[in-house]
Amino acid sequence: MQGLTVTPEEPADVIAVRGLTRRFGDLVAVDDVSLSVAPGEFVVLLGLSGSGKSTLLRCLNGLHPVSAGEVEVLGTRVHAAPEAELRRLRTQVGFVFQAFNLVGRLSCVENVLTGALGRLRLPRYGVRSYGQNLRREALACLDRVGLADRAFQRAGTLSGGQQQRVAIARTLMQRPRVLLADEPVASLDPENAGSVMDLLVRVCAEEGLTVVCTLHQVDLALGWAHRLVGLNQGRKVLDRPAAGMDRADVMDVY
Ligand code: ADP
Ligand code: MG
């Protein structure tokens, strides 16, 4: 009698995109793109302004409906999911923006606390009355981005690099499984851009997060990505592990 063969299960892709097309009227912003992202991968989407990076990123959590193709994230069929299911998915998908999107008049720790809203179904008011455990967790998140000493300072008074660190702490507070970052360092000077990328890559690795991060600077992409995916006028023109690549290898993107 033959014994049972046990094959270890391959970890499923966290993100699977097949033939994704997104049109705005006659304009094809994302053109027949397929892409898989494995658990824990840090993928950088590279491309000139207008190449479709942000549109692709928004299609991943259902902020844009797709015109054609399929998008699966954490097992959710995003292209076909009803709004309630998309809302559930978005609690597991952190988003970091170029413009930080903090509430400037609130303190850093209060901004970080708002990251827990989707996870805990708390009212959108009264962040000052959150329990002590949440407050401790928020302070720990700020500590992880090196800003424990700014916890009670108004977020709007911090530098750009510090504000993006607070935004990263807010995302940690959300306890997501996937992180989408749209040009997270585009408004920072080169030195701050490098240190925020360092931080982002480090905390995402510590959390085991799967990341898709758009960047338009080649040097940053080569320095930090596991894999580079290049877009040119909405089409995927590059998809390679970043190790060993140099500027000449990304010419198709520019
Ligand atoms: P990137 O992030 O790479 O700069 P985008 O995804 O923002 O590129 O834009 C891709 C193309 O889609 C551009 O030509 C842009 O003008 C167009 N586009 C993006 N969003 C919209 C929109 N909401 N309505 C119409 N056109 C849009
Ligand atoms: Mg963009």
Give the SSE layout.
Layout: E1 15-24, E2 27-37, E3 42-46, H1 53-60, E4 68-73, E5 76-77, H2 83-90, E6 93-96, H3 108-113, H4 117-120, H5 132-144, H6 160-174, E7 178-182, H7 190-207, E8 210-215, H8 218-224, E9 227-232, E10 235-241
Helix pairs in contact: 5-6, 6-7
The structure holds adenosine-5'-diphosphate and magnesium ion.
Protein name: Phosphonate ABC transporter ATP-binding protein
GO molecular function: ATP binding
Keywords: ATP-binding, Cell membrane, Membrane, Nucleotide-binding, Translocase, Transport
In short:
The chain is built from eight helices and ten strands.
Strand order of the largest sheet: 6-7-8-3-9-10
Relative strand content: 15-25%
Return the structural class. Answer: alpha/beta
State the distance separating the first and last CA atoms. Answer: 60 Å
Say how many strands there are.
Answer: 10
Q: How big is the Rg?
A: 19 Å
Main β-sheet description:
6 strands, mixed
Catalogue the unreliable spans: none
| Helical stretch tally | 8
What overall form do the CA principal axes indicate? Answer: globular
**Fraction of helical residues:** 25-40%
User: Can you give the mean pLDDT?
Assistant: 91
**N-to-C series of helices and strands:** EEEHEEHEHHHHEHEHEE
**Quaternary assembly:** single chain
Chemical compounds bound to the protein: adenosine-5'-diphosphate, magnesium ion
